[in-house]
Amino acid sequence: VIHHNTYLVDGELRKWEGNSTEVFSTISSTEAYKPTLLGSIPDMDEKSALDALGGALKAYNQGQGAWPTMRISDRIECMEKFVKKMEAKRNEVVKLLMWEIGKSLPDSEKEFDRTVDYIYDTIEDYKQLDRDAAKFKKHDGVYAHIRRGPLGVVLCLGPYNYPLNETFALLIPAIIMGNTTIFKPAKHGVLLITPLLEAFRSSFPKGVVNIIFGRGRTVASPIMKTGKVDVLALIGNSKSANALQEQHPKSNRLRLVLGLEAKNPAIILPDAELDLTIDECIAGTLSFNGQRCTALKVVYVHEDIQEEFNKRFAERVDALKFGNPWENGVKLTPLPEPGKPAYIQELIDDALSKGAKILNKKGGKHYDNYIWPAVLYPVTKDMRVYQEEQFGPVIPILSFKDIEEPLDDMAASNYGQQVSLFGKDVYALAPLIDTLVNLVCRVNLNSSCQRGPDVYPFTGRKDSAQATLSVHDALRSFSIRTFVASKDN
Ligand code: G3H
């Protein structure tokens, strides 16, 4: 059991002396798949949160030579120092990823390695940005030296499903562009940040990175209410993002970098290659138990192949292996959010009461902190499982006759992140792709939806995102174009 009580403010690792300690991490499963206590973390107070903000403000406003004006090569050196120290913590962080959020061993290793690659790629991209900025431009007798400058203080909040990778996809570009930061980890997947505190402390100047723990309302709200945050960077749900945004007294000045909900559909045309389609739909709907913003959350199947698809897909779901994240070949693992199985059950009950059936034999079977994925068919639009972002193991299937049906649904949806389109006839696919790219931001052909590779733009339309992430785009999202001009005289 890890009772962690240290946080990072203004270049110091401080001990939390307050009384309120919150049990934030309980997933670690035993053989009976019962949750066991893994550790606790302080639920810090307003004062400590404001100290962290003070650290970030001081570091940003220290004048010449401070982080925002520091030589680019010096900022890169700090980041390189950090990533090397982080790599030395691989085993510890990977173990905590498994224990805290139930991510399988291969996926946990991938999350760590992908994050390290992200940092190295960001450094390289930043060097290129700097090389481009070194070129002077001249138009109509005006010389300009155009570059990218930081935005100020960034409050950064990450999600529990990618507590390392997605949080760092916000934090790392924010830091390297010269902003100063306050980072509050997600409720689950919080302990795995603790082995990295010393690496942050010893790699960056005082106050550039401040790390605090606690509930959003106890620590993030007081920071927002000061009006001194310039960027809200959050991957999670729009309810938290909106609440925090509204607390900022000058919210129109706040830059938002947000990755939010999605309800990505799979559309399966009658000529789709079924083996491949089923493989991709299994991965798309159930990788990490469907707890991914990019997961396939609704499946549209053409009526001509409905029966065969339903039968084979349901069998494949029941053949997946459930177990602890560190066991070999495990695909389904315990869920970190204690209320999730009950929520999934509610969605199933609602769908059954409105005429859907569970297609797979094990669908809806309960373990302590798990519920077996239920494949539901026929799903209709009045069902909650169609309307809500389930973010867990339940798969709604709809039948369509005319392609306009899923297209109309996508146009009416509040979300617009990605879609997966399965079919063989390129002449039929081409016009469809043109329509789909205007409804979402990424069309995946004969493959499931995903964020990576991390060099590609990751964003969404409507309520799914604000700003774009990716190695390249995030540097732009966390900066503003500035320039120095002089006349040709
Ligand atoms: O939760 C949303 C993540 O960005 C999904 O990332 O597609 O790499 O699993 P992924």
TrEMBL record:
The keyword Lipid metabolism does not apply. Transmembrane segments: none annotated. Residues 26-479 form the Aldehyde dehydrogenase domain. SUPFAM superfamilies: ALDH-like. Keywords: Oxidoreductase. Signal peptide: none annotated. InterPro entries: Ald_DH/histidinol_DH, Ald_DH_C, Ald_DH_CS_CYS, Ald_DH_N, Aldehyde_DH_dom, Aldehyde_DH_Superfamily. Belongs to the aldehyde dehydrogenase family. This is NADP-dependent glyceraldehyde-3-phosphate dehydrogenase. It comes from Sediminicola luteus. The lineage of its organism: Bacteria, Pseudomonadati, Bacteroidota, Flavobacteriia, Flavobacteriales.
